[in-house]
Amino acid sequence: MKTAMNSGHVVREAKSERPTTCRMFESDFLERFSRIHPATPFVVWIPYLAFFTWRAHAHHGLGASTIAPMMLAGLVCWTLTEYTLHRWVFHWTNDTAWGKRIHFLLHGVHHDFPNDKDRLVMPLLTSAPLAAIFYALFWFTMGPRGVPFYVGWGIGYLVYDGTHYAVHHFRQRSRLGKYLRKHHMLHHHADHDGAFGVSSPLWDLVFRTMPEPRKKRAS
Questions:
Q1: Phi and psi of 2, rounded to 5°?
Q2: Is-contact 199 166, C-beta < 8 A?
Q3: pTM for this structure?
């Protein structure tokens, strides 16, 4: 056995095997909630989004002709949110010890341990505050129409979580699945400055950050 250091935390690993996980926090409470079963977002957020869909019609009086396009717009908005968070928040770096620790907690841990099954979808301690912030944003900017927009945005988030888990842990048989897996694996293994979209390459095309297969950068 040998001992490895990762952002201040000691991890023991077998010499012949690369570790698939690490301890992120000294606090047992924080460590517990840094991990999440991949089914949890769907169990929690599907009924939640179904409630807001019902509320948009029953409480706010919106019809299908309004709800459907607003949901579609929200879904597209999620893809931009996903790209923005991944590119400018998760990949934000700073050479200070504090900056390196923040980067590791936000996203560096995923690049160091990309197949950690307990950390491939967003933990509720992160997704719940984001859900509240974006609901308030959409409500105050769009009023009742912001409710179905928010539902579409939330559906986009679930597509992102499901896609991210699937490209890491399931064999992809469809052309789309194979393409998304290749796109994301290039981000991990060849070009950290490209392929920020996980559920869609749309904004990589718009912002010209499609991955370069032979580009390499020290992690």
A1: -130, 165
A2: no
A3: 0.85
